[in-house]
Design brief:
The structure is a homodimer of 339-residue chains. Chain A has 339 residues and is of the alpha/beta class. Chain A folds into two domains: 136 residues, NAD(P)-binding Rossmann-like Domain (Rossmann fold); 186 residues, Dihydrodipicolinate Reductase, domain 2 (2-Layer Sandwich), CATH 3.30.360. In chain A, 31% of the residues lie in helices and 22% in strands. Chain A has a six-stranded parallel beta sheet with strand order 5-2-1-6-7-8, with helices on both faces. In chain A, strands 10-9-11-14-13-12 form a six-stranded mixed beta sheet. In chain A, α8 links the parallel β12 and β13. In chain A, α4 packs across α7. The two termini of chain A are 16 Å apart. Chains A and B meet through β9, α5, β10, β11 and β13 of A and β9, α5, β10, β11 and β13 of B.
């Protein structure tokens, strides 16, 4: 790829798109030109990038002429409609939607785990689900050390994972409650302020939600581990940003706390925050706007023989979305042979 | 026991104590006389009961003369200091603290599960931990149907479980954030508004908290099931009232969804709220101030061979505390031989 590629962001005005623009700038990604694309209702909005105000343009099938790299984050429908046009125009697509994650022709990548898979791409590379990405950042180093068999997990997911309108909904509901006004809803089926909703994404006939199945389906592909099993409950909580996950993991081999800690401390993109005596553990308030995920509450699992319990938290707009996409882009522009 | 006992409430001005007074009145418990006891700083406060304003009196070792039944909810220290005096005065104590829950001389009771254990009391009956009680309301009927081996659980616990001051803390922090003021803390070690804290109660050397161990320790006693294992992560969430728990449970015998649903529908004190297509599932906002716990999100567990996933929510001030204590008291005043 061009060493200073022309980059397009599809869904530039969304919660993730805005973070993609910021992340490209903060990480000094070698942007040759940046094109911001969105639906017609956002056309004309200005978004700052590298000292300039870039004007959002309308996404069409002709938007990708001359574009080397497109970061998509506008939902699965837009990805299915426009990714092929981008690829046909010679563009490489990093797609943050779930549209291609189970397409075996499309690498599904967390660069700290399976960067090498990127090489096999045929124009599209998929970015994983946010909760899956954050969980795997802690689980994969443990898998390397002990060989994971299965996990039991429950998530605590922030509203910004649903998008900018959900963030506004929580803010609005809180203000309504503080001012003793009736609570209104537009995004979630139930009040999210001072409540928790045990539903993220749509239900499947099995009773699991699509979101809950992503952990196993995407985890298998990213870890190259076809027998990995995951039973997950995904829950929306009244937190603005950063997802957290409580995990019980069972391994093939005996687990020691010391070896687990060492494996996690050496893992890239992960901070071990685990000092119970000082009440230090990962929390969404403190992983917000951080690139690294944080893992803590490490303990040998009481109900598993080779098991470890842990708690991981990470910014789902960053490692769960924009950062991971930009990291994939960074791999794409690396000179051949670079580590 | 006297059919219209003289009842005392110890800790009458606390979050649970207030619910005890209300619950005695609402359930028309045959109160002969009601004495409200608290520490010296609450003396003189008036609390309405059955159309009168009762004046809070100071708790002393002489408070229990003539009292038949005392409901304690003022923390383990107060229970350890005063329960023996109450028993010596001829009073039966129902204790909501953790002080006696592991004392094999003291029955630990959820009336829907092990009411018969009450008969063996020697003056004190213990009320279980709130998260444990709410979880067991759904787990025990499943245990009867399939024989539970172990569970993996993660909790979503409301601030009122910590007490009235924690409720005020969440309210205050939300107002501070809405008014763009600095956030202050007095109760929790970290901001609870728009955050989640993966700590409830103190840490043990194992890395689990005391709260997390209650599920296994109390579950074994209440279900009379010494090999029951539970790996739990307890998490405080910015919800005012009602705890929720995500559970993966493994059983001895094969589980069918239909049989699980039937067992849960027949269970006393429990509502099955499980219509994913209509986005109906238990939530803390809707179990608040309800006597019954609610269970839903029923599904065969993907990562267990004989396993069921479920989600249970219940008012921890009621079934998790005041209601359960009053139900124990109701058993005590039943005429001998009554069902």
């Amino acid at each position: 790829m061009n060493k200073q590629p022309h980059v397009a962001i599809v869904g530039a005005t969304g919660a993730v798109g805005i973070e993609m623009v910021k992340t490209l700038e903060k990480r000094r990604f070698p942007v040759g030109q940046l094109t911001l694309l969105a639906s017609v209702r956002s056309v004309g909005r200005k978004i700052p990038f590298a000292g300039q105000d870039l004007v959002v343009q309308e996404l069409t099938k002709d938007s990708f002429r001359g574009v080397d790299l497109a970061l998509f984050s506008a939902g699965g429908g837009i990805s299915r409609e426009f990714a092929a046009s981008a690829v046909a125009a010679g563009c490489v697509v990093v797609d943050n939607s779930s549209a291609f994650r189970q397409d075996l022709e499309v690498p599904l990548v967390i660069p700290e785990i399976n960067a090498a898979d990127i090489q096999a791409h045929k124009g599209i590379i998929a970015n994983p689900n946010c909760t899956t990405a954050i969980t795997l950042m802690a689980l994969y180093p443990l898998h390397q050390a002990f060989g994971v068999k299965r996990i039991f997990a429950a998530s605590y997911q922030a509203v910004s994972g649903t998008g900018a309108k959900a963030l506004e909904e929580l803010e609005r509901q809180v203000e309504q409650i503080v001012h003793r006004e009736p609570v209104t809803r537009q995004v979630y089926p139930h009040q999210i302020a001072f409540n928790v909703l045990p539903q993220v994404d749509a239900f499947l006939p099995s009773g699991y939600t699509k979101e809950e199945m992503k952990m196993e389906n995407e985890g298998r592909r990213i870890m190259h581990h076809d027998s990995f099993r995951a039973s997950v409950t995904c829950v929306r909580v009244p937190v603005y940003r950063s997802h957290s996950v409580a995990v019980s993991a069972e391994f093939e081999r005996p687990v020691s706390l010391a070896a687990a800690r060492t494996a996690l401390e050496r893992a890239p993109g992960l901070d071990v925050v685990d000092e119970p005596a000082r009440q230090q553990y990962p929390m969404p308030l403190f992983t917000t706007e951080k690139y690294n995920c944080a893992v803590g509450r490490l303990r040998l699992d009481r109900a598993l023989d080779n098991g470890l319990c842990f708690w991981v938290s990470g910014d789902q707009l960053l490692k769960g979305a924009a950062l991971n996409a930009v990291q994939i882009a960074e791999e794409l522009v690396k000179p051949p042979g670079a580590a």
